[in-house]
Description:
The chain contains one helix and 27 strands. Strands 10-11-12-13-27-23-22-17-20 form a nine-stranded antiparallel β-sheet, with no helix packed on it. A six-stranded antiparallel β-sheet has the order 16-25-24-21-18-19, with no helix packed on it. It has a four-stranded antiparallel β-sheet with strand order 1-2-3-4, with no helix packed on it. The protein has a single domain (about 1-330), classed as Beta-galactosidase, Chain A, domain 5, CATH 2.70.98. Strand 1 (about 1-5) and strand 2 form a beta hairpin. The protein has one helix at about 55; strands spanning about 1-5, 15-20, 25-30, 35-40, 70, 75, 80-85, 85-90, 100, 110-115, 120-125, 140-145, 150-160, 165, 170, 175, 185-190, 195, 205-210, 220, 230-235, 245-250, 255-260, 265-270, 295-300, 315, 320-330.
Amino acid sequence: MIAPFGTTKAGRPVDAITISAGDLTAKILTFGAILNDVRLQGVPYGLTLGSNDLAAYDRGPMDYFGTLVGPVANRISGASATLDGQVLTFDANEGETTLHGGTEGMHTEIWQIADHTDHSVTLTLTLSNGKGGFPGTRQITARYEVEAPTTLRLRLSATTDAPTFMNIANHSYWSLDGRATTEGHWLKLNADRYTPVDARLIPTGVCDVVGTGFDLREGRVLRPSDAQRYDHNFCLSDQPGEMKQAAVLKGETGVTLVMETTEPGLQVFDAAPIDSGTFSGHRDVPEVGFCGVALEAQRWPDAPNQPTFPSVILRPGETYAQETLWRFSKD
C-alpha cells in the first residue's frame, strides 16, 4: 500500500509504502528510504523508532532515524580523503569531520519507487557528480522485502561513472520493549575485535575485545547507568562477503531480533545523547537518551583515510552490494 506521508520543507511530496508477509509489517518512506515502522503480530508496539511527522526527519532532530545514510556512512576524518592522487574535500558537518555524507547526505534525498508489491518495495536514487564533494554520478538501489514468517531483508546496490567512495548503512534504532529506554535489553555481538576511537570518534586502530567493555560475544544486559558507552564499530570480518550473524538483541518482554549481514562492520550506537525535542515517536511521546540501539551494518569508519581497513572505493564497471536482514520472534 502506498499513501501520502507529507510534504518536505522544500515542497516535495513524500510517500509511505507499507509491505507485509506472515506476521511482519514494515513501513518505508520515500524520504531518505527511511524504515519508519516495523510491527510484529501479537506485539502492541513498534520495534523500530520513528515518527508520523515528516518534519521530525526533514532537517529535524530525528533526521537519521531509520534512514539510509551515505554515500559514506559514519565519519571521515578531516572532512577529506585522497582518491587516485586527488584530494577530495567534503562537507565538515560535524566540526572537523564529515558524518554520514554531510549535511546534504542521502538522508535528505527523496527516492523514487521503481517497483512495489504487497511484500516488497524497490527504491532508486541518483546522486549527481560532486554532491557533497563525492565524485561520480551514482545510481543507487534499495530493496526492502518482508519474508514470511518474520524476516525483513534489505538489499543495496550502487554503481558509478567515476571512481568514488561508497559505504551505505541503515540507521534504524531498535527498541523491543515499547518503553522509553532500552534498559534491560540483552545484546550479543559476534565480533572479537573493535575499533577504538579518539575524541572525534575517529578510529585509532583495531583492538581485541578481550578484557574490555566491548566484549559482547556472550551477551550483556544494557543499562543506561553503566559507565560503558557505545558509539563504536565492531569488526565482524575483514571484507564484505557471505551472510553472517552480526547481532542478537532481546528485550525483557521476550521479543528478539537476530541480525545478519554481508558487511564487515557493525556500528553500535546506544543513543545516549538522543533527544527528539518536541517531536513524538510512535509511542506519542518524545524520544530521549538511550531510546534505542542503532545497529548499523557497514564497512569500517574512516576507511577512505585508513588503507588497512576494508576498502570503500567504487569504480566504474563495479557494483557495490550489501545485504542485511532482521529476523524477529516473541517468546
